[in-house]
Amino acid sequence: MGFFEKLKQGMNKTKSSFDEKISNVFKSFRKVDEDFLDELEEILIMSDVGMDTSVEIIGNLRNRIKKEKLQDEEDVKKALREEMQKILDVTDISLHLNTKPSVILVVGVNGVGKTTSIGKIANRLAKEGKKVVVAAADTFRAAAVEQLEIWAARAGADIVKKEEGVDPASVVYDAIRITREKNADVLIVDTAGRLHNKKYLMDELNKIQKVINKEMQEADKEVLLVIDGTTGQNAISQVKAFKEEADITGLVITKLDGTAKGGVAIGIVHDNKLPIKFIGVGEGIDDMEIFNSEDFVKAII
Ligand SMILES: Nc1nc2c(ncn2[C@@H]2O[C@H](COP(=O)(O)OP(=O)(O)OP(=O)(O)O)[C@@H](O)[C@H]2O)c(=O)[nH]1
Ligand SMILES: [Mg+2]
Fold first, then answer.
1. What distances in angstroms separate CA 147 from CA 162, 240, 283, one per listed residue?
2. Which residues line ligand 1 at a C-beta cut-off of 6 Å?
3. Selection from 116, 91, 110, 87 nearest residue 255 by Cα
4. pTM > 0.85
5. Nearest Cα residue to 209 out of 118, 105, 139
6. Spatial contact of 103 and 138, defined as CB atoms under 8 Å apart
7. What spacing in Å lies between the alpha carbon of 113 and ligand 2's midpoint?
8. Predicted pLDDT at 232
């Protein structure tokens, strides 16, 4: 199955809830007027796109409907898709990993799919012919290291780990040295999603980021915030909290398979001007793709 099919299948719940509601609006209004647009706006808001974003999309759609005299369901849907895509395309979505070595720091609250995404990204990079090292900087739980080890083995990446409970920044420090010694292309750092409290977590991330900035000054750096696509509006506050503490360069939205809340991705990009770089649509090693806004909106409407 191609990735687009996988994405479409995965996002089926988002799509059917969107599509069904939109078709119902078309059925209940005989023409595309203000009432119709109000109803459409409400659907977007209910689909977790977010209030401001929905208002903006419908505002732009209203102008186009007037200018282009759109009345047909398919034409209006197409215009709606394009307006959504415009929001998703506001920023540069490419990964900047041009130096050797370069580094990806992966952050996010617990259970969102950080370690799994690292496995998938490492595998992608390895397939591109890159030598990858992963750092097990989630030293909070022993199981976290074992899980990363399994993913590293699958992806053919080397792992740098230490015993449970050690300072994660020291793991990162060692990993940077080993990445250079092995002449690897990319270092990917896994971090803990839960510590004793939020302050510990953010302090730890700060410390890790400081080590990276100091030891890899010249390197290309990506700081990817992983968001669970099933969490809906909750995701918004997570982005806000992490943005305050880390230099986030992009988002990874996971678990878009089997959620009706995929619309949240559009609101997050709109509100934060952060690009989505990858999306996850399953638990397997190949279930992740570089984000493509056109495919994404096609998969939901
Ligand atoms: N369906 C689905 N499941 C996913 C996806 N990504 C991750 N998961 C699952 O989500 C669960 C948590 O994933 P992890 O990678 O362990 O999450 P984490 O952020 O590293 O969690 P902590 O280390 O506890 O903070 C696992 O059961 C994964 O298989 C996805 O795209 N789709
Ligand atoms: Mg993890």
1. 14, 28, 13
2. 108, 110-116, 138, 144, 193-194, 254-255, 257, 280-283, 287
3. 116
4. yes
5. 105
6. no
7. 7
8. 81
